[in-house]
Specification:
The protein is α/β, with parallel strands linked by helices and 410 residues long. Helices cover 36% and strands 22% of the residues. α9 links the parallel β11 and β12 (281-284). α4 (114-130) packs across α5 (146-162), α6 runs parallel beside α7 (220-232) and α12 packs across α13 (341-348). It is globular and about 70 Å long. It binds N-(iminomethyl)-L-glutamic acid and fe (iii) ion. Residues 72, 101-102, 105, 212, 240, 243, 288, 315, 317-320 line the site of N-(iminomethyl)-L-glutamic acid.
């Protein structure tokens, strides 16, 4: 088989589940957008016939393309106007209760056209790619009504076709109770289960569904109904669980056999045990702890020690973490959660692939997987976590093609 591209580096980090990450000195050969061969040492001459393009990445570090398993990509506008309130000590849930927060973004997202939403999201996707992210999950949840949720999910689907970054969609209609249902929350739940979810499922607009199970948002009882309906409609499940108030969200995610349980700052010890037993991936979001000034982080260390598969994501959204850059999140995971650089890499590659049910296809450098790689201008992986606040990406390879070169989009 003719190779399209071969990369040679002294420092390749493969990330298989359950195996320690050992950098190796070798090559990765790519054909047809997939990893066709890899090995230690110099490139075998037979791989170079007929001539393949060779990238010399000696002195640099190669990792699998980063996977951001939790984002709220599609939304209109921004919320820097909340900074002042936040600094005065008004909490996230209080801002939401007074009609701001998520609901402020909902109002703007309803007014925006699909093209406007795509234009804003495209800018974020460019930033993600420039920072080494090659696949993301993207939630809806800033439309809430049928028309706007569909508009947002269609925007994500079109961007998936048009942009280099792969997008996996999640329906998060249960993100907040919209104003028009403030006096009748059950009416909104009925709207979702009877109209919106069947529509989203029939037209395959989302692979996953998610619920913001939180005090003052959706109760565990409501969440259960929503997840059960979602499962019957064929959605894979995710859950914003135990983000701020402990509501046994982790237990519920485990019982429902969700693919992932996300946030988990307030998850109980029993909830954590249930996640291990059920094989649910925990998606932890250190950027959100930082940005909400919560003064604490999810118990990542304890979760890993218990045997929970821990993924790390940005939670990119306009309120609680306006940040597309996973490299920034790495440093927060390191110092906020005391995770090692190896654990962080696993959390943003193979474990994140599990959180999206894509572990057979992406998340590690293995023959047969997609050739999604980030080449970092760093002498070793630890250096990337250590030297924070700059972009270490030199090149990004997506589906075997160079899409970022010298830190710029190609
Ligand atoms: O994951 N927790 C709920 N949703 C988002 C925040 C959304 C927003 O504030 O706009 C989160 O933190
Ligand atoms: Fe979130």
């Amino acid at each position: 088989m003719a190779m399209d591209l071969i990369v040679r580096s002294g420092n390749i980090m493969t990330c298989e589940e359950g195996r320690p990450i050992e950098p190796f000195d070798g090559y990765i050969a790519i054909a047809g957008g997939r990893i066709a061969a890899l090995g230690q040492g110099e490139i075998p001459p037979e791989l170079c016939r007929p001539a393949a393009k060779i990238i010399n990445a000696r002195g640099q570090t190669i990792i699998p393309g980063l996977i951001d398993a939790h984002t709220h990509l599609i939304h209109a506008g921004s919320r820097e106007s909340e900074l002042d309130l936040k600094l005065k000590g008004v909490s996230y849930l209080d801002i939401l209760k007074s009609g701001g927060g998520i609901l402020d973004t909902v109002a703007r997202t309803r007014k925006a056209t699909k093209e406007e939403l795509k234009k804003q999201a495209q800018k974020s996707l460019d930033q993600m790619l420039l920072h080494g992210t090659t696949t993301i999950e993207a939630k809806s949840g800033y439309g809430l009504d049928l028309e706007t949720e569909v508009k947002c999910l269609l925007a994500a689907r079109e961007l998936h076709e048009e942009h280099e970054v792969d997008i996996i969609s999640t329906y998060l209609g249960a993100h907040a109770i919209p104003d028009e249902y403030a006096a009748n929350p059950q009416g909104y739940i009925d709207l979702m289960t009877e109209q919106v979810m069947p529509f989203v499922s029939r037209y395959k607009l989302a692979e996953f569904m998610d619920v913001f199970c939180e005090e003052g948002v959706f109760s565990p009882r409501e969440t259960r109904v929503l997840l059960e309906t979602g499962r019957e409609l064929g959605f894979k499940l995710k859950l914003h669980a135990d983000e701020m108030v402990p509501l046994q969200g982790a237990e519920l995610a485990a019982e429902m056999r969700a693919t992932s349980a996300d946030h988990l700052l307030a998850a109980s010890a029993e909830g954590q045990d249930a996640l291990v037993k059920a094989g649910v991936t925990a998606v932890l979001l250190p950027g959100t702890s930082f940005y909400l000034m919560l003064g604490r982080y999810a118990e990542a260390r304890q979760m890993i020690d218990k045997g929970i598969r821990v993924a790390l994501a940005s939670d990119y959204n306009p309120g609680s973490c306006p940040c597309e850059n996973l490299q920034a999140i790495m440093t927060m995971a390191c110092f906020g959660m005391r995770l090692s650089p190896a654990e962080i890499l696993q959390g943003m590659t193979i474990n994140a692939a599990y959180a999206l049910d894509r572990a057979a296809d992406i998340g590690s450098i293995e023959v047969g997987k997609k050739a999604d790689l980030a080449i970092l201008d760093a002498p070793n992986w630890e250096y990337v976590v250590y030297h924070f606040g700059i972009n270490h990406v030199d090149k990004v390879i997506k589906n075997g093609r160079i899409v970022v070169e010298k830190g710029n989009l190609v």
